[in-house]
Amino acid sequence: MKKQVVLYKKLSPALMARLHEKTEVTLVESLDAEGLAQLRAALPRAQGLLGASLKLDATLLDLAPNLQAIASVSVGVDNYDIDYLTQRKILLSNTPDVLTETTADTGFALILASARRVVELANMVRDGQWKRNIGPAQFGTDVHGKTLGIIGMGRIGEALAQRGHFGFGMPVIYHSHSPKPAVEKRFDAQYRSLPQLLQQADFVCLTLPLTAQTEGLIGTEQFALMRPETIFINISRGKVVDEAALIEALRKGQIRAAGLDVFEREPLSAESPLLQLNNVVATPHIGSATHETREAMARCAVENLLAALAGERPANLVNSQAWS
Ligand code: 8YV
């Protein structure tokens, strides 16, 4: 008998066909109130789940007694209670690697846009306010040759370092839970303590996962260590930062600008004080959002799920303790 899969993310026709070939699929098209009710109704028969951007807590998972595997269409796994899943022997998989380069591109887009004030000045042109040659009041700041500070030297951090070092001649400094000699050799990068990095980097870039240890890592005390020239970039998770402290630092001119793809609450409210600030570039969590990469992530998730449901170890198993 085919296994029962509940999808809470739309897939391309090719991937839908692949899934239909092997499983019985229930599709929940969106995660609005109606969609969530559909999901709840489908959970009791679900053996596999595939989707993203939904907090799957114990209350929801308790509705799914037959669940064997969850394939998340994301690299981040902060939406899942991993201990609980492991306890129930539910295999959780994610989609690393395929999104690394695209997410690093997003990071660099924010670095360039914030430093060169691309959004603010493009809006000036669009608003018909380009009346004369621009002067120092509109000048930006250079990116090439400046110090790139990366917090969290994982795959995405490395891809950012590669762009900065080889493309823009930037000295690279980094902070992570342990020094990485191979990275240091490849990008001529230097390890720093967190306070040292915050004091020395021209661009402070967050690329680390959200965990109990990283939640609220950057707050008032950390912004106070940055300089008025510092540009702050976040492509990881909003909750790694105390957003109120970030707003305060921007308002007080403690830092020059911020490029943000992630926020404490998403979607970001139109009322957010961040959107009142000209020196903030805010994008709607587009880190991996290209046609090619989202398809590759979905394909990876489908293969992870099919493997798990067939009793094989998925290529990107997150909770290896659940595998026996
Ligand atoms: C999206 C992401 O949030 O992979 C991640 O961790 O943050 C993103 O790529 C989304 O999960 C894509 O489906």
Task: Walk me through the structure.
With 324 residues, the protein is of the alpha/beta class. It has two domains: 126 residues, Rossmann fold (3-Layer(aba) Sandwich), CATH 3.40.50; 183 residues, NAD(P)-binding Rossmann-like Domain (Rossmann fold). 36% of the residues lie in helices and 14% in strands. A seven-stranded parallel sheet has the order 8-7-6-9-10-11-12, sandwiched between helices. A five-stranded parallel sheet has the order 2-1-3-4-5. α7 links the parallel β6 and β7. The longest helix is centred in the C-terminal third of the chain and has 19 residues. It is globular and about 70 Å long. It starts with a strand and ends in a 15-residue tail after the last helix. The model has no long low-confidence stretch (mean pLDDT 97). The protein binds 2-keto-D-gluconic acid. The site of 2-keto-D-gluconic acid has 10 residues, from loops. 2-keto-D-gluconic acid binds next to loops.
Major sheet: order of its strands?
Answer: 8-7-6-9-10-11-12
Ligands bound, unique: 2-keto-D-gluconic acid
Number of domains: 2
Total strand segments: 12
Secondary structure class reads: alpha/beta
Name of the CATH class of the largest domain? Alpha Beta
Count of separate DSSP helical elements = 12
Give the overall average pLDDT. 97
Percent strand: 5-15%
The CATH topology of the largest domain is Rossmann fold
CATH homologous group name of the largest domain = NAD(P)-binding Rossmann-like Domain
Shape: globular
Please give the CATH architecture of the largest domain: 3-Layer(aba) Sandwich
Point out poorly predicted stretches. none
Return the string of H and E elements. Answer: EHEHEHEHEHHEHEHEHEHEHEEH
**Helical content band:** 25-40%
The rounded distance between the terminal residues' Cα atoms is 23 Å
Largest sheet: 7 strands, parallel
Domain D-isomer specific 2-hydroxyacid dehydrogenase catalytic: 5-319
InterPro entries: D-isomer_2-hydroxyacid_DH (IPR050223), D-isomer_2_OHA_DH_cat_dom (IPR006139), D-isomer_DH_CS1 (IPR029752), D-isomer_DH_NAD-bd (IPR006140), NAD(P)-bd_dom_sf (IPR036291)
Organism: Pseudomonas fungipugnans
Domain D-isomer specific 2-hydroxyacid dehydrogenase NAD-binding: 108-287
